[in-house]
Amino acid sequence: MDLQEYISSGVLELYVCGALSEEESREVSNELKQHPEIREEVEEIEAALSRLAVSVAPYNPQEVLAAINTKINNEERGQTIPAQRKTATVITYLGWAASLLLLVGLFFLFNKNNELREALRNQQARNAQMEQQIADARKSADKAEELLAIIRDRNTERVLLAGQDAAPDSYATVFWNAEQNQIFIDAQGLPEPPRGKVYQVWSLTMQPLQPTSIGLLDDFYQDENKVFQLENANQSEAFGITLEPEGGSETPSMDQLYVLGTVAATP
Predict the structure, then answer these.
(1) Whether residue 12 sits in one domain with residue 100
(2) Which run of H or of E encompasses 175?
(3) pLDDT per position as a tens digit, 18-49
(4) Across residues 122-141, what is the average pLDDT?
(5) What is the mean pLDDT of residues 88-109?
(6) How far apart, in whole angstroms, are the C-alpha atoms of residue 190 and residue 170?
(7) Which of 112, 120, 192, 186 is nearest to 148 (CA)?
(8) Computed over its alpha carbons, how large is the radius of gyration of the chain?
(9) Which of 184, 213, 243, 266 is the least buried, fewest Cβ under 10 Å from its Cβ?
(10) 237 lies in which domain range?
(11) What is the CATH number of the domain that holds 232?
(12) What is the mean pLDDT of the chain?
């Protein structure tokens, strides 16, 4: 059983008020013995009811009694009422009034309790979202530092990928460090891929033409910077990016070749 769901179900408020059946009360009593959290909640409810009783208590009970007596006399239409009957009627009215106040107080307390729990859940969700944003920012900062280190390395080659027939206006840049077997791809110049499609990066050797997949540009929609890191241990002579079905392809779809660029020959 989930303790929070049990606590927020309202059964504890009914238990404190004695509104449960004998069997239900025994079940709650057993839960109190087993779970300190439930016992603490019951103690808080009892304390809240005590404060509520004090706050709604009439300042001048004599005036309340007088008003009730007047009401009784009016209803009896001037008939003489024995003192014992009057007292019993007053007690009955007071009992109903106290029950009404108790029900109103319980309703208010139950709603307030639920509002506080909802506010707590919302705050926890906001905290989790903020923590995720901080983690993403740190990850992005680490990625930026690593990219700068790669770009500034004298062994890093910069390969410009130009748009092809499938997307003439597209472009991308590959930063390849052969010693570290790493590449960073700046794909800001690629359009958003359609749903169910993904960009796949290929390392190419030209003679003979041999494409080798080096990875997918996953999470293209979520990545705001559109900078992706992949590993490349191939002796690449060119790089190309094609649009493929989700999950990638074993061979490139040449009619969906978006960008292509060759590695500068070593002098």
Answers:
(1) yes
(2) strand 171-177
(3) 778 888 888 989 988 988 988 898 888 888 77
(4) 71
(5) 57
(6) 5
(7) 186
(8) 38
(9) 266
(10) 156-262
(11) 2.60.40
(12) 79
